[in-house]
Amino acid sequence: MLPEVQRLRIPADVARLAEMRSLIRGAAQDRGAPSDVVDDLVQAVDEAATNTIIHGYAGRPGWVEVTLALVGRDIKVTLEDAAPAFDPTTRPEPDMSVNALVRGPGGMGIHLMRLATDRLDYRARDGGGNVLTLTRSLDPRAEEDG
User: Considering the domain 5-144, what is its CATH architecture?
Assistant: First the structure.
């Protein structure tokens, strides 16, 4: 029987993200997620955790904790950290009409998280930091139905 909730805390070090990706991939597969859902969750969590480590902690020590739970037909992945507060849900969508070379690097991580999930929810963490919840249904999206 699978544990209802799986949790992993890593130091704020991009070299440790493979552990997080592995947990998400295995836990989502164990819960019967189709491969496209698994891939979406892994990408979204990787983007969120990378942003926290690189931009939030910006070289300072810290941690990122990921929790994965199945709620009905949804997989909910919550990332928690103690980095300076940052709400990605308030960021505007990038202007895709502008050539990527003109738009410049960066700014696509949050866009990719939105594309890969059904919902992003943010709240400030008690005591400082961030709590970001990414929700993805186990059910295929209409455009994914064969």
Answer: 2-Layer Sandwich (3.30)
* HSE-CB of 121 using CA atoms within 13 angstroms: 9
**Residue 63: other Cβ atoms inside 10 A:** 18
Residue-wise burial string across 102-139, b where 16 or more C-beta atoms lie within 10 A, e elsewhere: eeeeeeebbbebbebbeebeeeeeeeebbbbbbbbeee
Segment holding 145, helix H or strand E:
none
In angstroms, the CA 48 to CA 40 distance is: 12
Amino acid letter, residue 15: A
- Max Cα-Cα span within the chain: 51
Q: CA of 83: how far to CAs of 71, 112, 125, 127, in Å?
A: 27, 21, 10, 11
User: Is this prediction's pTM over 0.85?
Assistant: yes
Alpha carbons 10 and 28: distance in angstroms, whole number: 19
Residue boundaries of the structural domains of the chain: 5-144
Per-residue pLDDT tens over the stretch 43-82: 999 999 999 999 999 999 999 999 999 999 999 999 999 9
